[in-house]
Amino acid sequence: MPAQRNITVIGGGVTGLATAYALLRDGHQVTLVERHDDVGVEASFANGGQLSYRYVHPLADAGVPRDALAWLLRAGSPISLRLRADPHQWRWMLSFLCACNATTNAKNSAILLQLALRSQAGLTQWRTDGLKDFLWRQPGKLVVYRNAAKFRKAARNVSNPELEQVLSPHECARVEPAFAALAPDLAGGIFSPADEVADCHLFCLSLRDAMAAMPAFRQVRGIASLSAATNGRCDVLVDGRPHDTDLVVLAAGEGSRRLARPLGFDLPLYGLKGYSLTVNSRAGTLPDVSVTDYDNRVVYARLGDALRIAAMVDIGARDASVDPRRIARLRALAAQTLPQAGPYETARPWAGLRPATPTGVPIIAGTRYQNLLFNVGQGALGFTLSVGSALRICDLVRGDNAQGAA
Ligand SMILES: Cc1cc2nc3c(=O)[nH]c(=O)nc-3n(C[C@H](O)[C@H](O)[C@H](O)COP(=O)(O)OP(=O)(O)OC[C@H]3O[C@@H](n4cnc5c(N)ncnc54)[C@H](O)[C@@H]3O)c2cc1C
């Protein structure tokens, strides 16, 4: 058991909550600072629900700039770009383009895979130890491809056939009969039988409830800020008032960049907006397996009696407001792909900002401030990577600083 510290975690999304819980389990006193009345109400609220432990390839890959260009010229495409007079946006996009090559993608996929597998093992332990149900299931994940070249490329990347199986269109339909009508349009699919699904918001509530029962935990509602002190440390303020702590972990999602700026950090984080729909479907119409429609970049996951459909990357969105045109497009795509699982007219829309780094690799590191650590930038995989990222923070607090300081 490491020496007990008094640690403050800023941010009550899935990353901050998992971090706080992991630190409590490691024997520390933990204060969670969250600006909203409750937890998990920003990017962690209604995401795709996929715990995608095997399929972790970052968005930045060879061929993506060409595909993105084609998408940007097509109405209703999965990616939209609004250019802003914002140097941060331009720098982020330039770094993203630099990461769009096979070598960088392979290197970053390997880093993410390691973190994801640690996440899966950690979550298994936490569930076994008695977290309240959060609609967790392990139905496996099927990524279906309509484009033959993209499917061949994905099939070539499969290195362990026990973890990922390459399927023909006919086999895809057998694995998930709800998508059988799509089989004639498919080139094939990759099935990861050990992947999981769950409701991220319920997971946040389950962590909140587990921690509320632990005497070493305290939750504070307030707006945190950081400023440099003179002794190689940073000061934490909550609602402008000094907050005493041994260590602080910044896990404030997309808001982390603003928080870190007064300390001289320009974190390469950008909020990539995405959308979801939650449908209370007709009984017996829901897919069991979670499915990613790769070419449309849409994910489908059954969460209890509901179907969660998530998609789209809007670059240059200023906030997480729901754009009715994007939601109408998502509704139409879902109705085309899985018509029986409606009614889509009554589906609940949502939008959130993925806190994304250009490479897709999160920043989980100590910093030049002795008392500050970052746990930010999980992007499109924040739910999947939450537990592994939290356990990595525990390593750093214990003094295993192998990955260096930011
Ligand atoms: C459409 C969509 C689909 C997705 N699908 C999946 C999926 O299927 N699988 C997956 O793994 N991931 C998915 N993601 C990604 C995942 O949802 C995010 O990566 C994750 O929720 C980020 O969690 P977070 O805790 O870092 O950020 P958040 O959930 O945004 O939490 C940050 C918290 O910090 C708080 N905060 C910010 N500033 C301050 C401050 N100054 N003081 C106090 N509190 C502050 C905020 O209020 C917020 O509660 C999806 C995302 C989107 C948008």
TrEMBL record:
Keywords from the named record: Oxidoreductase
GO molecular-function term, one example from the UniProt record: D-amino-acid dehydrogenase activity
Pfam families, alphabetized: DAO
GO CC field: cytoplasm; plasma membrane
GO biological process annotation, one example: D-alanine catabolic process
Keyword Endoplasmic reticulum among UniProt keywords: no
SUPFAM superfamilies in the record: FAD-linked reductases, C-terminal domain, Nucleotide-binding domain
Occurrences of domain FAD dependent oxidoreductase (ranges): 7-396
Domain of life according to the entry: Bacteria
Bilayer-spanning residue ranges: none
InterPro entries, sorted: FAD-dep_OxRdtase (IPR006076), FAD/NAD-bd_sf (IPR036188)
Entry's family note: Belongs to the DadA oxidoreductase family.
Name of the molecule in the record: Amino acid dehydrogenase
Upper classification of the organism: Bacteria, Pseudomonadati, Pseudomonadota, Alphaproteobacteria, Acetobacterales
